[in-house]
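Quick one:
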Amino acid sequence: MSESALMTSPASGVRKPFYRTLYFHVFVAIIIGVLLGHFAPSLAVKMKPLGDAFIKLIKMVIGPIIFCTVVTGIAGMGDMKKVGRVGGKALLYFEIVSTLSLVIGLVAGHIFHPGSGFNLNPVSIDTKALAGYTSAAQHQNTVEFLMHIIPDTITGAFASGNVLQILLVSVLFGAALAATGERGRPLIAMIDYFAHTFFGIVHIIMKVAAIGAFGSIAFTIGTYGIGAVVPLLKLIGAFYATLLVFVIVVLGAIARVLGFSILRFMSYIREEILIVLGTSSSEAALPQMLEKLERLGCSKSVVGLVIPAGYSFNLDGTNIYLTMAVLFIAQAFNIELSLTQQLTLVGVAMLTSKGASGVAGAAFVMLTSTLLVFPLIPVSGMVLILGIHRFMGTGLAIANTIGNGVATLVVSAWEHELDRTRLNDRMARQRADLPRA
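Output:
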């Protein structure tokens, strides 16, 4: 067997056949799920609980893992100025790249013109299916978003599973623990033991990742069918082409400046990418990303702060989706937007993209929020996208996952806390799988 057909286990360093690796199992499960959804849709839709159960299992441990990782990282720093510095650098990077992704989505909408030829009339569209999303979006303004970051109780943050609330509690707890000095060392050690235990739980859960991916993709294809994609194939194709350009060109350039290949980084996190592909949820890969980025050479404190915050503030794929979708709807209604209106759209989308964290169907709610704030384009046009949102949501979730990984490496390097030797060693192992980018 060739070396490219083998994979090294990170934990043991022992190579095992490709057919025993997680990414291969998930890939096969996705193919089977697509075939089942196409040829036996009535049976495929019944597979939904498999995907839902896997995502619930992952969400069950996200809160404790974020808490343990952030607390031990901050308490280990012992310097709150450093915590503020890392957070500030992360937010600065997030805003720069987020703005760039919004503009790229807008430019792609003009290049591909995916909405041309629909010639829609707002009066003729049935908007009943949008009621739930519109209701959720109306409550997602900036003030509500900021207030929602503060949980009613500490335990309530973990009960709701809201990542930003958990992050706030973790930062406060870590800061208070760091202030105790030597007296807090035993508690830091205990929390670190808890972290290793919860990562052990994640490793157990990941053994059924293929089943979860199979259930989710089978349900999606069985429910919407390939036929739902065909009329809007131009939009889907343009969207995925734009995501690919963004990842390879923009994130690839950032990666090259840091001294590694974006393709090799994607190879390194291929299991997480396939899990997101199968489940359409970037949260399904969060625990594994925390562990893998630390193993790649990033410091625990940077990983613990950047990854959870990125799930609300660094949504590159979602930003591209927002501006492309809005422009698509405008084109479908034959609405011409001036340059000033398009720049306003970017500004509005920059705010609304932060306002639906923790909301079911977050990207669609963000799109609704954008259109409600930007009333020139009828909200009713979202009916066109409703049937294909899950197909587009998969792509944006993958881009978000890759983007947050690159962001963590950037901030780690910026803080001079990136182990270059370990990074180069891990990236070198991907040469057998992918060509140099």
